[in-house]
Amino acid sequence: MSPEHARGEGVDIRTDLYSLGVTIFEMLTGQVPFKAKSAINVLRMHCEEEIPDILEEREDIPPNVAVVIRMALAKNRDERFIDATEMASAMAKVQRHNRASGHSRAHRCLHAESRREWWTAP
Fold first, then answer.
1. What is the number of other CB atoms lying within 10 angstroms of the CB of residue 26?
2. Gap between the Cα atoms of 105 and 107, Å rounded
3. What is the model's pTM?
């Protein structure tokens, strides 16, 4: 749940992008960003605490992939992607850049099509 949703504020597409960011974080690390004994504490953490650095969880993730995930998980929705098209474009740009630079870590992360085929640029 996004910070604004947890606070009872209005929601929009950026709320869904936050949830997508959480899902991507979990897909890449095998764990959710925050764990606590109660759902209320997890919601509080989403509102107040920094998202863990995904690069500390998975050193093989290219830094530019981590930037996209961090942007999706911004506490302030105005700092997130405007919509899913913008996020998909950012991922496609990351993919093209990492392919062009021969970034083997990017290849392993971005081309695990059985789990992340939606990252593939159209």
1. 12
2. 5
3. 0.78
First to last CA, the chain: 29
Contacts of 53-58 spanning 24+ positions with Cβ under 8 A: 54/25, 54/28, 54/29, 57/28, 57/29, 57/31, 58/28, 58/29
Q: Are 76 and 47 in contact (CB under 8 A)?
A: no
Distance from C-alpha of 91 to C-alpha of 88, rounded to nearest angstrom: 5
Query: Which value, to the nearest 10 degrees, does the dihedral of the CA atoms of residues 120, 81, 19, 119 take?
Result: 0
Asked if 110 and 94 touch (Cβ cutoff 8 Å), the reply is: yes
- The helix or strand, by DSSP H or E, that contains position 80, with its residue range, turns out to be none
pLDDT at residue 110, rounded to an integer: 47
**120 has pLDDT over 50:** no
Q: Please determine, for residue 104, whether its predicted confidence score (pLDDT) is greater than 60.
A: no
Q: How far apart are CA 95 and CA 39, in angstroms?
A: 35
The distance from CA 34 to its chain's CA centroid, rounded to whole angstroms, is 13
Geometric angle at alpha carbon 96, from 89 and 57, rounded to 5°: 85
